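Weekly modeling sync, notes
Attendees: S.R. (lead), two postdocs, one rotation student

Agenda item 3: backlog of single-chain predictions. S.R. asked that every request posted to the team notebook include the full sequence so nobody has to chase files. The rotation student volunteered to paste the first one in as an example of the format we agreed on. Action items at the bottom.

Example entry:
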Amino acid sequence: MYTYEKKDKQGILKIKISKENWEKAVNEVYEKTKGKFTVQGFRKGKAPKKVIEQTYGDTVFFDDAFENVINEEYNKFLTENKEVVPAGYPNVKMDSFTVDKGIEATLTFDLMPEVKLGNFEGLKSKKKVVKISDAQIDAEIEREREKHARFVEEDKVCENGDFATIDFSGSVDGVKFDGGTAEDYRLELGSHTFIEGFEEQVVGMKKGESKDINVKFPDNYGAENLSGKDAVFAVTVKKVEKKVLPEVNDKFVSDTTEFETLEEYKKSIKEGLTKAEEDKAERDYEVALIDEVVDRCSLELPASMVDHEVEHMVEDFEHRLSHQGLKMTDYLAYIGKTLEEFKKERRDDAEKNVKTRLVLQKIISKNNIVATSEELDAKIAEYAKHYGIELDELKKNLSPNDFAYFENDIVMTKLLDFIKSKNK
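Predicted structure, as returned to the notebook:
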């Protein structure tokens, strides 16, 4: 049994659970969880409810039973009142609980905000005109030259751009520190791989030469025990190599690529760069259009929706860090921020994400933008052809989430086409 009222953009749902329904919920939890309890003299799952309560406490089943009956009533309410759309999880407060009368509880939740769409006629976003310069083509060729560079050992002093193979051992106040010693380390001079001042002092040394290099660790260095400290590195140069790049000509092209002439190669690079730049320009254009559409709409977001989005963003970031073998706590220590400061910095982006999502959903709903069965079949067939998979075999192995992915892809494409049609 429930009563509902809307107050200040919030829903307030009062739920009453009868004594009989409460007892039923407790018994259901007992039947479901009794196998987890160990009671002396009984096999697992065979101890009577009263005995488990005497052993583990009278309220041992209450938490799960309370959650179950509240969720059941809450879902029943939402099913019977589809016009009520919560913006997040409800806050649950138990008002009273007695053996004779059952439970009374209040659920308070933010309501989904009303989205007021603006006038989309005459959008003004512009798509960048792509023009590939000779410098961009030359840069691509230069990267290919770097891949095929040769390294020639020379009896010479080290210069920027050379590769010096060195032994080094670092110390602070005469004491060596972890990670400060290595042998046969191949260092590209001028790459700024080491702390400031180190590579500059290797320049001018020659093979077989040893000397002490004095440097100072930055104040914000990752290792706290070294931050701001003066250090001495004993360095020995064991080899000096000069990088030699191949000459760019038809021979270089035919030896290293699928093309025969430099002219053909440059043409291919230009086509590839043009395609990549045009794809990026199209994505940027779509983002600009969506931003313009969202700016023309009005809605007031409940703080709970933004809070939830921030938590989701942080969890996603933490997950990506884990793939790099990093922990969130270590990352925060490295950038010198607390978790709350990190979350606060993401709040504006979270608000923009939620607002954009709600506006696009409203446009989709208002304009009845859907994926037809024919479009879905065509999209799946296109995917199967692209990856060389038999269509029937692919369809047989697709999960509901896979179908939802294809459907969403179609809807978003049609949505963007709809928005683009409003751009003047």
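Discussion: group reviewed the output briefly. The chain has three domains: 2-110, 150-244, 262-420.
Action items: rotation student to repeat for the remaining queue; S.R. to check formatting next week.
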